[in-house]
Amino acid sequence: MAPIRMIDIAVNFTDGMFKGIYNGKQHHVSDIATVLSRAWNAGVDRIIVTGGSLEESKEALAIAETDGRLFCTVGVHPTRCKEFEESGDPEKHFQGLLALAKEGIQKGKVVAIGECGLDYDRLHFCPPEVQKKYFEKQFELAYATKLPMFLHMRAAAEDFCEIMERNINKFTGGVTHSFTGSAEDRDKLLSFHNMYIGVNGCSLKMAENLDVVRGIPVERMMIETDSPYCEIKSTHAGINFVKSLWPSKKKEKYDKECLVKGRNEPCLVRQVLEVVAGCKGITDIDLFSATLYQNTCRVFFPQDLDAAADALLAGRNESQ
């Protein structure tokens, strides 16, 4: 059987924690190279670096250019949508995003528009009207570039799905990542034929979350860490399903052979795979990971679909 291969669809490598900075204070050297090495050794073979603002998307693209296995998104996170208006010229800001996305496509690096969507949990950053306006606007980026969408939905399912419905013909497909919604929210998303649901540690906190995840069909799911956030903690409902462990030390005692305690990183997408398999009662984890891999290729790496399908079939034949 082929070894497990995973794609982490959400890593915030632009976050200060990967530069060793926590709450404005430097605790250790920048260590993305070390973090990547651990990820590749764990069976991750591609990572999508998240862009959440125009500046961050530029940085995400620069990071993606450092390794053939890194890719990125270009877009504006709902909590940062004020940047369109604060730029003084929202249309120019939009054109800046479009130009960056086109540049990144040419480089073979930008694979989605996002992270965009609605977040009504954190309205202190950006009011709902501004969020809705610029969420809708970003479908134009997807339409102009023919890229899929990398989406964010928090406590906003009704407005989110309404905007999606209006723009369904403007994008090829997408994933609503870091999903923490209800069964009803899940089913609304699944009613869009081209929508996948991204699952990470935040999706697996409580027994109720696990119930919701059980109802996501395997062929409509992707996995992610959303690191450095959303790790699976020892208090989480699915912790007993975790099999892969790494030593960790506090940031004050930084050791490159260990994870930083409390900082999530892409190698831990393996734990997400294990918890989802465990809660769904899936025993063939190789086949499960191959299906998730193929889902991810279908949306973000369609040029590799044939190879992914061949590998999946080869794995099936070997196991029979």
TrEMBL record:
<dbReference type="GO" id="GO:0046872">
    <property type="term" value="F:metal ion binding"/>
</dbReference>
<protein>
    <recommendedName>
        <fullName>TatD related DNase</fullName>
    </recommendedName>
</protein>
<feature type="binding site">
    <location>
        <position position="226"/>
    </location>
    <ligand>
        <name>a divalent metal cation 1</name>
    </ligand>
</feature>
<keyword id="KW-0479">Metal-binding</keyword>
<dbReference type="InterPro" id="IPR032466">
    <property type="entry name" value="Metal_Hydrolase"/>
</dbReference>
<dbReference type="InterPro" id="IPR001130">
    <property type="entry name" value="TatD-like"/>
</dbReference>
<feature type="binding site">
    <location>
        <position position="177"/>
    </location>
    <ligand>
        <name>a divalent metal cation 2</name>
    </ligand>
</feature>
<dbReference type="Pfam" id="PF01026">
    <property type="entry name" value="TatD_DNase"/>
</dbReference>
<dbReference type="InterPro" id="IPR050891">
    <property type="entry name" value="TatD-type_Hydrolase"/>
</dbReference>
<feature type="binding site">
    <location>
        <position position="115"/>
    </location>
    <ligand>
        <name>a divalent metal cation 1</name>
    </ligand>
</feature>
<keyword id="KW-0540">Nuclease</keyword>
<dbReference type="GO" id="GO:0005829">
    <property type="term" value="C:cytosol"/>
</dbReference>
<dbReference type="GO" id="GO:0008296">
    <property type="term" value="F:3'-5'-DNA exonuclease activity"/>
</dbReference>
<comment type="similarity">
    <text>Belongs to the metallo-dependent hydrolases superfamily. TatD-type hydrolase family.</text>
</comment>
<dbReference type="InterPro" id="IPR018228">
    <property type="entry name" value="DNase_TatD-rel_CS"/>
</dbReference>
<feature type="binding site">
    <location>
        <position position="152"/>
    </location>
    <ligand>
        <name>a divalent metal cation 2</name>
    </ligand>
</feature>
<keyword id="KW-0378">Hydrolase</keyword>
